């Protein structure tokens, strides 16, 4: 029973790190985002027109900071988390919706991205850190020129 409880606590803490990464991004708390990332992240945002490859965490943060700077708000909503843990590694898969918002003269103020996330995390004495971040876009809706 104690082992089962320890596993459930580790699973919940890995999921909490994933959710905190999205919340910190929405709040533009770049210091917190950086603390939640491993030093290098295998990033794949290619299906949504973003970068792909092994990228230094500082560069990921800088890219997200500059890419989201023109938006009035960004909102991530994730659910249906499926988590597996093997030793110090965790894999969290989930569905996600991302909404970008910026006031425009046309009134077409939002762009919505719907897809799935696959995240790999490593446990360390400082907590869980995301080392793999993949978004698989399913569809988009709204103003495609929102960031133009």
UniProtKB/TrEMBL annotation:
Ranges of residues in domain SnoaL-like: 20-133
InterPro entries: NTF2-like_dom_sf, SnoaL-like
Transmembrane regions listed in the UniProt entry: none
The organism's place on the tree of life at top rank: Bacteria
Name listed for the protein in its UniProt record: Nuclear transport factor 2 family protein
Species of the source: Gaopeijia maritima
């Amino acid at each position: 029973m104690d082992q089962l409880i320890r596993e459930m606590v580790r699973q919940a803490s890995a999921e909490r790190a994933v959710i905190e990464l999205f919340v910190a991004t929405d709040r533009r708390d770049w210091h917190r985002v950086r603390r939640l990332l491993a030093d290098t992240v295998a990033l794949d945002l290619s299906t949504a027109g973003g970068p792909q490859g092994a990228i230094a965490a500082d560069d990921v943060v800088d890219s997200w900071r500059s890419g989201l700077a023109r938006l009035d708000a960004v909102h991530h909503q994730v659910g249906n988390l499926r988590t597996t843990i093997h030793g110090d590694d965790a894999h969290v898969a989930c569905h996600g919706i991302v909404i970008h918002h910026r006031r425009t003269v046309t009134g077409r103020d939002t762009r919505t991205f719907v897809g799935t996330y696959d995240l790999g995390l490593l446990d360390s004495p400082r907590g869980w850190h995301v080392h793999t971040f993949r978004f698989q876009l399913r569809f988009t809706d709204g103003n495609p020129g929102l960031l133009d």
